[in-house]
Amino acid sequence: FVVFHYSVPLPTRYPHTCCIDALGEPHRTYLCPSNPDVRSYDLALVEELLDTYSGDGIRHESLGFGGWNQIALCNKVEVLPTPRDQFLLSLCFCEHCVSRAHEEDVDALSLRGSIRDHLYRSLPQNPTEWDDSAPDEQWARNVFGGQLWRYLDVRCNTVSSLFGEVQNLCNSHDAAFMPFGTRNDRDVMACNDYSLMYPHLKRVSLGATGNDPVAQRTSLQAAIEEVPHHAEPEIMHNQRSFDSSPKLTEAVMLARDVGIRHHSFHYYGMSRRHELEWIGDSRDAWAKG
Fold first, then answer.
1. Do residues 156 and 74 share a domain?
2. Are residues 160 and 214 in the same domain?
């Protein structure tokens, strides 16, 4: 498990690597995936982990762009902007993002100016006058004369190509790149083309739904049916969402009973001692199962 672009020391020590919003403010806790130094760092990190620890796969977190106010709270923001304005503030306009857009015939600087002008009008308004609508695809396609959607498409290409490079590196080590679900589409709003990763899936991340074991079993069985033949299902349980060792063990064994053979727990380092003991109980039950 490795965290890539969410970082405090790296953007602070190397400020040229962090994201820059439309107002020119740096995102001090997020590296920009457009930056060639960052992309080289990502690949070097993956290769070192696979070479050093000979793991059977890489679980990634934050390999794309970060959201505004994500992970670290922005200082002195007592009233959060609207969801759409937060989305606009999440967009990076560093020199590398602007350059990538230019290569795809997208005028990023013009869009940046339009977003800046909008924010200067919107942010000073009384919050009671704000539009709290979510930043959905229909809005993104039409706002700013379609400029935003074209820029989002560039960002999607940026992240997808980085994922592709990491996937190729994992393939060269016969390792899995995860977590991914069964998606096989291009999602511009989410900044990723899942269809590029789908043919290489070795693990597919699943999760149980439902309020009782019967419903959860049924949901997992249905999800397993969606896993492509070239991949295997995996599941992660968050031990902190359970209130006893028997309940965690029951959930873990249910996953095993329906045919899942790859399992992990969530963030050992954030767990209390009794939760670590629960993990041990579940691991023992899994091994005996």
1. yes
2. no
